[in-house]
Amino acid sequence: MSLAAERTYLAYVRTALALLAAGVAVVGALPDLGHEGLRRAIGVLLVGRDPQTPVVVGRDVGRDEEQLITTTLGELDPTTVDMRSLVIVGSSSTQRRADSAVWTARSVE
Question: Which CATH superfamily is domain 3-104 in?
Answer without folding.
Answer: Tetrapyrrole methylase, C-terminal domain (3.30.950.10)
